[in-house]
Amino acid sequence: MSLETEINRLHWQSRRGMWELDLLLVPFIKNHYAELDQDDRKRYEDLLACEDQDLFVWLMRRELPEHPEHRIIVEKIIEYAENSDLDHFKSL
């Protein structure tokens, strides 16, 4: 599977229907996923299998995931969001 196909597939899986999650996950997948190494790409895909309520708590920094692999990618998503230009979020 090409990287572009993978990103397109994950883009739709990243659309969770919860505005707060969409604001973090969609720009991350569109603008940063291609820069991740294979391990982080796997972590991201595994993270998408988690429940929306867990993702919300983790990405809003109310708790950290217990699973260390989830914690690594959650921290990268948060870091990306904190350091990104807000224009990235307008393209949802």
TrEMBL record:
Its main location: cytoplasm. One of its GO terms (biological process) is succinate metabolic process. Transmembrane segments: none annotated. One of its GO terms (cellular component) is cytoplasm. It holds the Pfam family Sdh5. The keyword Chaperone applies. The keyword Cytoplasm applies. It is found in: Cytoplasm. Keywords: Chaperone, Cytoplasm. Signal peptide: none annotated. InterPro entries: SDH, SDH_sf, SdhE_FAD_assembly_factor. Belongs to the SdhE FAD assembly factor family. This is FAD assembly factor SdhE. It comes from Oceanospirillum multiglobuliferum.
